[in-house]
Amino acid sequence: MLIWFAVYSQGISLPLAGLTPVTWHAHEMIYGYSLAVVAGFLLTAVGNWTGRPMLSGWPLLLLFLCWLLARLSLLAGGSTYLLVAAIFDLLFLAGLILAITVPIVRARLWPNLTIVVKLILLLTGNLVFFLGAAGRLEHGVYWGLYSGLYLVLALIFMLSRRVLPFFIENGVGYPVKLRNSKWVDIISLVLFTGFWIAELVQPNGLTVAVLAVSLFILHLWRWLGWYTAGIWKKPLLWSLYLAYAAIIAGFALKAAVYVVGISPYPGLHAFAVGGVGMMTLGMMARIALGHTGRSVFEPPPGLGWMFMVLGAAALVRVVLPLLDAAHY
After folding, report:
1. What is the pLDDT of residue 176?
2. What is the C-alpha end-to-end distance of the chain, expressed in Å?
């Protein structure tokens, strides 16, 4: 983000392996930052789910180096560096897929293979992006970026469904049973898959708007079913709850692109900054506390301020362009 600030606001020019600054920024926030957080979460969680040892030592270092070299290569210049970045980025994803697939299969936790499927689709999306960036596939950059963002959201939906009600029920300090429905899970998956495909085929069209409204209503119903007043006393709960709300708002803004003609980018940043950003920060904080022997029920007071700053950034990034599109 510091590099993006320098490029965007200070006019600093960087080679970026031949990518435009906006394309580089979008790719790195999705396939760089978001997937790094996904990798960290899964390399911890899958071990807990399966009871199997996960990557450590040199194999883990090699996985990290693949990720790092892909990031550094994209800051260099020329098509050769784009190829190097593609190789290391795809190796990182392939290594992550292998690292979580083996323990899941050995533990016979077959339902968790849906996570592996999403990671394979993310690898495919990243490959499509690089083919587009290299001029080998028309629309490849657009398809790769939007597929990456929506697949990250799909992972958030799946993991939120699994852990967010559990965190709330166990964290508010009083008995509460939150609402969930398998039918909502199934309908949400079908509608979101259709939304993703429609966005690739006819961006911001009528089909996208109809599906976005449907997803807004569906996830709003789910979100309200997870509410209990005790979350507001726990930053590690309200941060995740508001992150989910930002994604819901993103669907409303995506529908508004077709209905009233607003820019598509506030909706994208509701998904990305408010949704992915807040959700990943909240999960990183929770995992860091838990794995360093500190209580997730009594976190340091600075965490609340950290979440509020990010929430303010999301509001600025989403709301101000709606009020003054000329300075977006």
Report:
1. 92
2. 17
